[in-house]
Amino acid sequence: RQADEFKKNLPLFPGRKSILRRNPAAAPMAAGLSPLIYEVVQLSESYPRVEDLVEHSSQPDFIVYKALTALLAKKILLEEGGSRSGADELETILPREKMIILREKIISRFTNIFNLNYGKVLLVASSGAPAADFIKRCATVPGYTGRRKSAMSQFSMESPLGTAGSIELYGGMELLIFSIPEAAHMGPLWRAFGSNAVGLVLIWDEAGSGDLKTLEAAKQDILSRTSVPVAHVYSGLGAPDMDKVRKAFALKDGEAPFVVGPDGTGALEVFTSIFDKLLNDDQNSGTGSKTPVEAR
Question: What angle do CA 202, 225, 216 make, to 5 degrees?
Fold first, then answer.
């Protein structure tokens, strides 16, 4: 309901990148106002950027935006560097109302309150080459930022290990793209790096077509520890052997792997498929994509 209201009132709300400041000419605030009003005004002193203030408030985002709108209308706060219609918003992978729901879905999966600002998509590849290629192609995904200097910076992008990039979600939350190449040799790392996982992407190229059973074993091992949506991605030249792929991954009729082209075509669909499953609470994680992505 709040997501629907948020969408309806979006043109009235301040942009999330806007900077707020107290109006020195405003009359003193009256006593007896809602505690939220005092909280928002106080937070604006420490967190003048709208998105930071909303993130640090104790109240739901929609309620905070309504309070901000009222304070701006009364000219108790002034807005700088932003526009009301959301024109200052970064391009995002999903509509804003879905972003709000997705953020809550991801948060609800975690029990550790210190891990509420990020989720993680694991990339498990047949080798370093398709992992590196897919990461490069993620540059076409809205909100994606590459992280060349990862925790495992001694590994080059030819065999990326660690946080390779992130996708900005809503309210300060990030989706980290964590790469684990060489599936055949990295099994012990799945447990160590699987915390906060909300999705799994299996990647191979033509050279890794003989490693599909290894990827499937990795998938089953990970899913035995945490239930997450799965996307199967072919990142090589040409086209994969669909019959072989369906058999190796036990895909249902009508399901097919995603095919990501050299220009990044198809990368967006990989992540939106994971998000759609999270939004729909689809925990049948062994499924592939609903439809093939023709991206060549």
Answer: 30
- Write out pLDDT tens, residues 235-294: 878 788 888 999 999 998 778 899 998 887 889 999 999 999 999 874 444 444 433 333
Maximal C-alpha separation, the chain: 73
Per-residue DSSP letter, 206: G
User: Do 13 and 65 contact (CB within 8 A), yes or no?
Assistant: yes
Please report which residue ranges of the chain form alpha helices under DSSP H: 2-9, 35-46, 50-56, 61-73, 96-108, 128-137, 187-193, 212-223, 242-249, 267-279
The H helix count followed by the E strand count for the chain is 10, 9
Cα separations in angstroms, 45 against 23, 59, 160, 268: 12, 17, 41, 38
Here the tokens at position 287 are 């499924």
96-108 helix and 267-279 helix, angle to the nearest 10 degrees: 60
Residue with the two structure tokens 């640090």: 56
Residues 43-74 have pLDDT tens digits of: 998 888 888 898 888 888 888 998 998 898 88
Radius of gyration of the chain (CA): 22
